[in-house]
Amino acid sequence: MEIMVELLKTIIPLGLLMMGMYFLAKTFLNKQYEQRKLELNSKAKETITPLKLQAYERMTLFLERITPNYMLLRLYERAELVGDFQAILLKEIREEYYHNLAQQIYVSPETWEEIKNAMNDMLALVNQSAAELKPDDAAINLSKKIFDKVVNEDIDPTKKPLLMLKLEVQNLFE
């Protein structure tokens, strides 16, 4: 019996010591894991942030380039007839969009959806305006028609996505 008591006096403290060491090692390893995870996240952010900013810049530029004011002023001399000018405008909007398609991985799904809506609204604006004119009318008439619709109907398809892009950039640095 005395041997059992002596054995228990030795085993119990050793068991407690082993459990303490186990929990100490586990805590240390968990802290190391969390620290390593933070370092990796920090490095990933260092890599991703410049790419995200570039994507926001490119999408802002895309939206500015398809805004009626800028697009019509930039392209109005390329065609003489409404039908030709309509084709040029539609092609320009689509090319700008497809050129920036990969940027969607850096912006939120909601913002990307608004960017797509802006592009589709611009395509519709061009098509609706052209439909109200004869294809062989002077191209300047299409510009006037689009400007009239923008002003009279208060159409600004790029306003909301531009605002959303600005908010996302601000949120990056908060």
Walk me through what this model shows:
- With 174 residues, the chain is mostly helical.
- The protein has one domain (51-172).
- It has six helices and no strands.
- The chain has helices spanning 2-66, 68-75, 82-99, 109-131, 139-152, 159-172.
- Helix 1 (2-66) runs antiparallel to helix 6, helix 3 (82-99) crosses helix 5 (139-152) and helix 4 (109-131) runs antiparallel to helix 6 (159-172).
- The longest helix has 65 residues, at 2-66.
- The chain is rod-shaped.
- The model has no long low-confidence stretch (mean pLDDT 92).
- The chain crosses the membrane at residues 12-29.
- Keywords: Membrane, Transmembrane, Transmembrane helix.
- Pfam families: DUF7935.
Domains counted in the coordinates: how many?
1
The mean pLDDT is 92
The amount of beta strand, in percent, is under 5%
How large is the radius of gyration? 31 Å
Shape assignment: rod-shaped
- State the end-to-end distance: 69 Å
Helix/strand class: mainly alpha
Number of strands: 0
- Let me know the largest β-sheet: none
Query: Helix amount, in percent?
Result: over 70%
Keywords: Membrane, Transmembrane, Transmembrane helix
Pfam family, one: DUF7935
How would you concisely characterize the structure shown here?
82% of the residues lie in helices and 0% in strands. The chain is mainly α. Helix 4 crosses helix 5 and helix 4 (109-131) packs antiparallel against helix 6.
How is this fold's topology laid out?
Layout: H1 2-66, H2 68-75, H3 82-99, H4 109-131, H5 139-152, H6 159-172
